[in-house]
Amino acid sequence: METNTEKIFAFIDTYAESSDSLYLESVIEACQKWVKGEQQPDLEAIATKEEIRRGIQLAVLKGMNRHAQPNHQMTPDAIGMLIGHIAGRVAQDKQNLALLDPAAGTGNLLYTVMNAIGNGATATAVEVDELLVRLSAVMADLLEQPVTFYIQDSLRPLLVDPVDMTISDLPVGYYPDDDNALNYELMPTEGHAYAHHLFIEQSMKHTKAGGYALFLVPANLFDSEQSSYLHPYLKNRTLIRAVIQLPDSLFKNAIHAKSLLILQKPYPEMTATPDVLLAKVPDMTDKHAMALFLQKIDSWASE
Question: Domain 77-302's class?
């Protein structure tokens, strides 16, 4: 018997394969028809937000594999679910949380976190690729998630009010616009700045005092060529709350391995510098080890 997720994927995939448009364009068209009630998947029960997200995600992944582009990548679901769990614990059931993703892509990571948090969370998504924004927007409509979209370079000035939490799978590499990068503390004296460094700085500017930022970063972030610029910035402008190493098995190549960096913006009431959680996620197929790891995360968040 097909699950709701499978039925949603089949509905979108059938439409896309029969269309003359590019696959991802057809995914958008199918979802728009679903939103308008013109066509929809044949579901026996009301689909949950996670079933809808996963069904659309499968179709988007198929489209991305068919027309691969460097900026068309999606955060693996296992990582998204982990970040969603941690974000929910850090939020501590706070109502009406305001989120920001400055490199939103299709919004898959953002919606995974919003689905996990619930409690009336709202979000701002910034993305330079118009196609990805259109995919993200129609997904937001189907998930009934309140998201405001900006199509722009996130490292340009953002007209975004400070948020309670920033989450992002940071784009990794050099930022080519040196003139704009000069507006950042993390612009090196020679050469191009690392885009992921600038995204961290931009994100912290738009995070409230006491608010949190959860970033997927290169595993070698603190040992990279420009780490000598990053270390003093993090020490002076942020509180490092956790560095969580992700399993190498989640990445095709060890050089692409990532970690989860959790920062907090300093706040006036702070009386002491909190300890930093250093942890490594176990093999995610080991249910017992994962249960113990999540207990550790929950204990850290409650403290």
Answer: alpha beta
Domain boundaries, the chain: 4-66, 77-302
Alpha carbon 104 to its chain centroid, in Å, reads 6
Full-model pTM: 0.93
Phi then psi dihedrals of residue 42, to 5 deg: -85, 90
Q: How distant is the alpha carbon of residue 108 from its chain centre?
A: 7
Name the region of 258 (left: φ>0; alpha: ψ -120 to 50; beta: rest): beta
Instruction: Write the pLDDT tens digit of every residue in 121-150.
Output: 999 999 999 999 999 999 999 999 999 999
Alpha helices in the chain (DSSP H): 4-18, 23-36, 49-66, 77-91, 108-117, 130-143, 178-181, 195-205, 227-237, 287-302
Q: How many residues does the chain have?
A: 303
Positive or negative: CA dihedral 237, 242, 245, 246: negative
pLDDT confidence tier of residue 113, bands split at 50, 70 and 90: very high
